[in-house]
Amino acid sequence: RPVQDLIWVEITDRRFDAATSLVREAAPLLVPKSATWGDYWCGVVAAYGALDARAEGDTETCARRTREALDLFARVPERTHDAEGRPTNVAYSIAVALADEDEQALVLALAKLLGEEPTHWWRQELLATHMPADLSAEATNAVRQVIYALGARALSSTSK
Fold first, then answer.
1. According to the 3-state scheme, what is the secondary structure of 75-112?
2. Looking at beta carbons, which pairs linking 148-156 to residues 24 or more positions away fall under 8 Å?
3. Suppose 69 and one of 17, 56, 95, 142 were both cysteines; which one would form an S-S bond, judging by CB atoms 3.0 to 4.6 Å apart?
4. Cα–Cα distances in Å, from 89 out to 30, 47, 137, 150?
5. Gap between the Cα atoms of 44 and 63, Å rounded
6. SS3 (DSSP) at 151
7. Residue 23 is inside which H or E element, if any?
8. Torsion angle in degrees (nearest 10) through CA of 156, 124, 8, 76
9. Please, what is the angle between helix 16-26 and helix 37-55, to 10°?
10. What is the average per-residue pLDDT within 129-156?
11. pLDDT digits (tens, 9 = 90+) for 72-92
């Protein structure tokens, strides 16, 4: 778990090459060994790197990192999909949305990410940065649920 925390620090600081290096250094040292951990985490780093490149207007890097993420995630479907084959992983959903150029799916993925930890500044920033001008009803509802979660947290913290 400490290595994963360090990887997230690198991702949130937009140091994607450093995050990938950390994954590659740590993967062979895991106890117990994991055949999928390295590919999975390199895919996560690539997906968020693609998202960052998109925000910077770097379409070439976004496309390259998106392909890389999807290739890596294809090697580890048990980490990205449930038993029925439905996607369960936010980073995977981000990569798919970027590959499909699907703004609504991207908002849904980022709203899900933020919904897991509504007060996390980086997750809030991602959703705000990638919010399109127009939202579908489903995406609007997803964002609404995050806002409600933020409100519930605020209410619970003031009632203590």
1. CCHHHHECCCCCECCHHHHHHHHHHHCCHHHHHHHHHH
2. 149/115, 149/118, 150/118, 150/119, 153/118, 153/119
3. 95
4. 22, 11, 22, 22
5. 15
6. helix
7. helix 16-26
8. 100
9. 180
10. 79
11. 999 999 999 999 999 999 999
Distance, in Å, from the CA atom of 129 to the CA atom of 107, rounded to the nearest integer, reads 10
Taking the model in full, what pTM does it have? 0.86
pLDDT, position 149? 79
Counting residues of the chain whose pLDDT is more than 70, the rounded percentage is: 94
Residue 41: pLDDT band by 50, 70, 90 thresholds? very high
| Chain segment 93-111, per-residue pLDDT in tens | 999 999 999 999 999 999 9
Residues 126, 105: Cα–Cα separation, whole Å: 14
Identify residue 130 by its one-letter amino acid code: H
Tokens coding 131:
């919010």
Residue with tokens 């038993």: 83
